[in-house]
């Protein structure tokens, strides 16, 4: 396995709500290699989004460390994190979360405005990203004028435009019909293979998970590899063909 | 326009404050647009997207700014008149027992430092007069019409009757009048200076003559030659004529009527002004004048310009106090609340957007600035436009706000009102948006994107 570009060590995350403490992540460990396409599955409420938030520096663990590209994310200040995130994390959301007042082009440009680059370079990067997701002909459309699948492609273009270390996708196909979902997954596969991007994909959808190189399951606050899941007899029936495909 | 603005700023601390705020807003706004042009554009696009809300908010703020501008104009002038400008403190001598004041013309001689009849009580032990010839002036009023068959504001002219030498040293706001105009007036016994509005109403040019039929001195009809125009401003509807011409016309009347004097001949002096410099001098000179036996037949009273106006306005005092300390602040609070309401709705709706911006690497302060920028833009523009509209509407239509109390026909909206509009729009927007913008700034991304059941 190549040098890990990200590792998470003994992370504990709990929330207090109504005076009651809920521990979502318990001593969680994870290593991801550069260029790896990792699927993260797990029941609703198991803490997948919470994990992504910790990785992207949007929240802090109670204990443990998150290292990405040689830097410890969990100890950076908020403004350090903001600058770091622009260059290192590309986030893809289930509900796209594009700014409705901006065109596709402007949405993709948004993170680049925070970087000290020339407007020519910025333009090139935006056009390139839109080209990669196949939306060059829609760049002056606003989100309201685009289909769900097209909006998600804009979301992907926005995530890759800064050439981040890590792309993090939280159920990117969760809101799409089957065909659009397939297109989005194809696109992500191409990015990973063609551009050697490291991608973390959170999904409920076994067909989505199928595209990844490795699947981990979040159960009771810990991550289990598929084999471990099987051994523990926890594998859900729908997950089994993925195991077969790999085995 | 700019000299007037400057004068208004110098005259009133509120105008000064508004000027400073305006300057800060312009500089800060320019800095914001230069530093974050895209954030500014994003803000504009957000405002345009919710156009109806933006329009309604602006309208509410505009209406309030309009009302404040109107009310404040009136308060501003009342304050300007009633607050004593101490270096210019004047005694106004009038007839004690009736309004309008009518006094014998001889009263002027007793108080004129240049006259041989000057009251000896007004000369101190060293032989110095308590005030000089440049600190004295008399007022008479001669009103007439160019068309006795059709008496309208356009055919009416009210002359201030005075010595030409008194104009520059004594008249308010005429201190920097072109001395050539005074010379021109001294050259022509029948000469007069007209305000621009009067000149236009008469449809005459400098050098031309016109005749008036008197309204307040029946039978004394005079002919005038226009020798100059008064500077644009508060004297636009006024006119100035010479005292000696006025006096001679009474002698002429007597000659024409077998030596019978005009019934008002002995009552043709209306006011005397003495500039006294400070309060102590005022008390000293005032009591000398009041006690002087010379005036016992026609007793006089002494007042300051502000106390004269002040006593007149006493009846309105509570209304003014309420306007100043209750209504205006109340409307400012409402402006801030309108803005707070609109901005908190926006922030609530766009929580997801704020969170996404943070995910992309926007710092909390940038998110804060985005919201503040939107609010301040709306406030400043709505405030400025409303004040501008108020200014144009009243001043162009009636020459000011036609709020008639006593002898103030209209209240001209000062140029500084444009700054009031901008300043109150900005400040109330800022006050109203701070809390919601802070909420936006501290949106917790992890809470927006995880399911918090
Ligand atoms: N900010 C928070 N405050 C309190 N509790 C939280 C917070 N964020 C998440 N939780 C709780 O932590 C648990 C994990 O939530 P999370 O959103 O990570 O689940 P998930 O695996 O992403 O679920 P889903 O598949 O439905 O998206 C849930 O019980 C949730 O209620
Ligand atoms: Mg989730």
Question: Would you give an account of this structure?
Answer:
- The complex is a heterodimer of chains A (247) and B (453).
- By secondary structure, chain A is of the alpha/beta class.
- Chain A contains nine helices and ten strands.
- Chain A has a single domain, classed as Rossmann fold (3-Layer(aba) Sandwich), CATH 3.40.50.
- Chain A has a six-stranded mixed β-sheet. In chain A, strands 2-1-4-5 form a four-stranded antiparallel β-sheet, with helices on one face.
- In chain A, β9 and β10 form a beta hairpin.
- The two termini of chain A are 18 Å apart.
- The C terminus of chain A is likely disordered.
- Chain B is α+β, with helices and mostly antiparallel strands and 453 residues long.
- In chain B, β5 and β6 form a beta hairpin.
- The termini of chain B are far apart.
- Chains A and B meet through α1 and α2 of A and α3, α13 and α16 of B.
- The structure holds adenosine-5'-triphosphate and magnesium ion.
| Biggest β-sheet: strands ordered side by side in the sheet of chain B | 2-3-7-4-6-5
Strand order of the largest sheet of chain A: 6-7-8-3-9-10
Radius of gyration of chain A: 18 Å
Overall tally of domains of chain B: 2
Q: What would the average pLDDT of chain B be, to the nearest integer?
A: 88
- Multimeric state of these chains? heterodimer
CATH class of chain A: Alpha Beta
What share of the residues of chain A does DSSP label as strand, in percent? 25-35%
The average pLDDT of chain A is: 88
Distance between the termini of chain A: 18 Å
The domain count of chain A comes to 1
Greatest contact between two chains = A-B, 32 and 26 residues
Coarse morphology of chain A? globular
**CATH H level, superfamily name of chain A:** P-loop containing nucleotide triphosphate hydrolases
Q: Given the structure, what is the number of helices of chain B?
A: 16
Largest sheet of chain A: 6 strands, mixed
Shape of chain B: elongated
Instruction: Identify low-pLDDT runs of chain B.
Output: none
Radius of gyration of chain B, whole Å: 30 Å
Q: Sheet bearing the most strands of chain B, described?
A: 6 strands, mixed, barrel
**What compounds are bound to the protein?**
adenosine-5'-triphosphate, magnesium ion
